[in-house]
Amino acid sequence: MADKITSRQQDYSQWYIDLVRSAKLADYSDVRGCMVIRPNGYAIWEKMQAALDGMFKETGHVNAYFPMFIPESFIAKEAEHIEGFAPECAVVTHGGGEELAEKLYVRPTSETIIWSSYKKWIQSYRDLPLLINQWANVVRWEMRTRLFLRTTEFLWQEGHTAHADPEEAQEEVIRMINVYRTFAEEYMAMPVIVGKKSESEKFAGADATYCIEAMMQDGKALQAGTSHNLGQNFAKAFDCQFQTKEGVLDYVWATSWGVSTRLIGALIMAHSDDKGLVLPPKLASRQVVIIPILKGDKEEVRAHARFIAKALNKHGISTFVDDSENNSPGWKFAEYELQGIPVRIELGPRDIAEGKCIVARRDTFEKTEVLLDAEMTENIEEILNNIQQNLYERALQFRQDNTVEATTWEEFKAGVEKGFVIAHWDGTDETEALIKEETKATIRVMPTDEEYRKQYNMDEPGTCIRSGNPATQKVVFAKAY
Amino acid sequence: MADKITSRQQDYSQWYIDLVRSAKLADYSDVRGCMVIRPNGYAIWEKMQAALDGMFKETGHVNAYFPMFIPESFIAKEAEHIEGFAPECAVVTHGGGEELAEKLYVRPTSETIIWSSYKKWIQSYRDLPLLINQWANVVRWEMRTRLFLRTTEFLWQEGHTAHADPEEAQEEVIRMINVYRTFAEEYMAMPVIVGKKSESEKFAGADATYCIEAMMQDGKALQAGTSHNLGQNFAKAFDCQFQTKEGVLDYVWATSWGVSTRLIGALIMAHSDDKGLVLPPKLASRQVVIIPILKGDKEEVRAHARFIAKALNKHGISTFVDDSENNSPGWKFAEYELQGIPVRIELGPRDIAEGKCIVARRDTFEKTEVLLDAEMTENIEEILNNIQQNLYERALQFRQDNTVEATTWEEFKAGVEKGFVIAHWDGTDETEALIKEETKATIRVMPTDEEYRKQYNMDEPGTCIRSGNPATQKVVFAKAY
């Protein structure tokens, strides 16, 4: 049963920790900065993996697996890459009881080890494109960790593609950030802003980084996925050339893109409440719990509960019955609210006599009566669809309510304490750094979505919110996880 | 297209390497002893994972994820365990640019890190059983590596369960080795012998190890899966006690069980031939290739091919069309034989006119005519089922043909050069070690399957094949991968 969860209002950070622990989603391990993803948390990851993997395959990608150890000399081949990643790597110096001739880095990301293979596999334009994804664990040494959001080891997928020309690579970059957007919005019920990162925020080794950014319930931003245009940087670092259709040699064009178990943290922070986890039905491994009220003819109540569960499962709605007598219905209500089961069905002898049951929604706590008739499965399905839709709309409304367009520095400073701020920026690293120093807010994204750009007149020229210099566009600022 | 594959007869080891490379299943990487699992190989692993994961869940298990780093002090807690595993570990000594206070071992297996969590999660019999599985990468430093069969890093699943009494733990051990048997026989079409390992071959830290052993086409044995009864060893090492139903404290009973990407090597060695990979249809991500013979009205032939592919896919048979004009039909035949596509359909204008197509089986190369009628999908399905069945029976026949019951030392020595030898053993470590030293053969398994025991009169007392001392039972000897 739930330990007491601190309320969001009282202490948002503590609420998050309490929730993750109480709902048994994850635990810190005895290894510094590493987490244990417990079965309840891992079940969410499995649903995410299944949906994403299907979308990757539909867009022509195949899975493969590359070594997790990267020789030090490989990491060093791409200058920006080593500068960005080497300081946060775990380093293997001994193996099989002996000191290694060359140190091995545990992959923080796999561009280098993968391009050392691509070099062998790609000779001609006929070998392109190469569209490969990998599901793997990666390690980035973190000083300050937070379950799911920032841990030394985490799970992710990383796509690595190779193309014959820059246009095709750029198409891939955009295709995949849009796949992430679709996943975030349609599965996670989490609205995101699609766009580009500023130079200072882009991936170490990329020409350009695209991202999806979401707003959490405390108004902070969370980067939920990235897609990088790597240009010819890694092909040059690994001397990966191919013969073009025209018969000349050129370096291969590359992309990479990834999302991680961080998405579980985003999911929690986007929707959950003071009673526990709130899961969008599409990512709930268990969508409906039936709690029989065991009075009168208990076996008859149980039989009805099982019958309904069977019908719902047959209809593709993942349902289970908790008919244990160790715990009271009230205890069970609280427990499954904590676990984020989207729909609870209460069923007692009187309900059965009246041919109905009580259906409680996790998102709104609204209770309705549903008839135990031939349309029941469809009615429950509709409720699940409504929950999915409502979570998205609620989160979108929240984001809109907590986004301000700042025209003064005072508005800006107040705005980033509360949510996203849309403001003019002069385009310089210096101003960006200054704003970060003074407010802890960073440029989260330079939106590329037309609708979003129009909504906030992002293309309107103006003066920079901090420097007062001319600015050609507005960008989105926020504090971030 | 295929590089030339060495024939099995000429050089079995080279045949294996050639096949793995030519069919693009895996590649050595630039990291010592580590492999790249290429998309064709990984697709097999994905099919294996899906089938096994389903079977684990049906038997009540859930997935979770534990850190891959294990503090040195944890490994040291179970005496036999550290002795067995420490010498083959990769060791992280630096992280985030600094030397670590305590070295971290990259997991060679996860008993220790998992039991350090179980200790926190288990207080009472109500918390038991705990039935958790993990899909992960592990590292065991190997001096002599072979793609899939023995590499420094490999992928696997490891189940770790906790129970309130030894009977339930033993039931779990047997349940899971039987799950592996079912998987090996029904999906991999690979007959296996189920049984116990001798003391010297059991897992470091286990009271007993059960295994499934398969025969490869060179007569060698391959251990394809293990299930360990860990007794209270790890619970004691991690001081994991629970309150029993009777209200007293006791140590928790444990099991662990695993299979790895080694199964892909087993699959190759069990069925494949000099033309390339032979895949059982249940593990083929692509089961049927349609090769249109592009003569006459090419577009009409193509349209028919696509129509058939659509019908087969709709029926749940994974089918694709190769209608490229860059390569000849003959080239395609060889290429898809190399890749192990179970069924090839050839379809030319004359076939279409006659309302039929040619269906070629990968396992027997047999060609039959199949009518392009309403029963076609079912006929193809039947052929796929026949292939699955035939591969199993062929492998079983091969195993029987290459198993000898030895009653003299000469017979024994000749037998282990060819396959499995069933012989009396006096039950001592000394004799076992002597036999290994003299013949390189080891005790692969002490069968527990009644049918197998009867077939070879394993319970018949006799005299030890090597020492001449009294022996209460026969066991299975072989050279092994």
Report on the structure:
2 copies of one chain form a homodimer. Chain A is α+β, with helices and mostly antiparallel strands and 481 residues long. Chain A folds into 3 domains: 12-271, Bira Bifunctional Protein, Domain 2 (BirA Bifunctional Protein, domain 2); 286-384, Anticodon-binding domain (Rossmann fold); 406-479, C-terminal domain of ProRS (Translation Initiation Factor IF3, 2-Layer Sandwich), CATH 3.30.110. In chain A, 37% of the residues lie in helices and 28% in strands. Chain A has 15 helices and 25 strands. The first copy, chain A, has helices spanning 12-22, 39-58, 72-75, 79-85, 111-121, 166-187, 233-237, 262-271, 298-314, 329-339, 349-353, 376-401, 409-418, 429-439, 450-455; strands at residues 26-28, 35-37, 62-63, 69-71, 90-95, 98-106, 130-139, 153-163, 193-196, 208-215, 221-231, 241-243, 249-251, 253-260, 288-292, 319-321, 343-347, 356-361, 367-371, 403-405, 420-425, 442-447, 462-463, 470-471, 473-478. In chain A, the strands form 6 sheets. An 11-stranded mixed beta sheet of chain A has the order 3-7-8-14-11-10-9-22-25-21-20, with helices on both faces. In chain A, strands 16-15-17-18-19 form a 5-stranded mixed beta sheet, with helices on both faces. In chain A, a hairpin with a 5-residue loop joins strand 18 and strand 19 (367-371). The radius of gyration of chain A is 25 Å and the shape is globular. At the A-B interface, strand 2, helix 2, strand 3, strand 4 and strand 5 of A face strand 2, helix 2, strand 3, strand 4 and strand 5 of B.
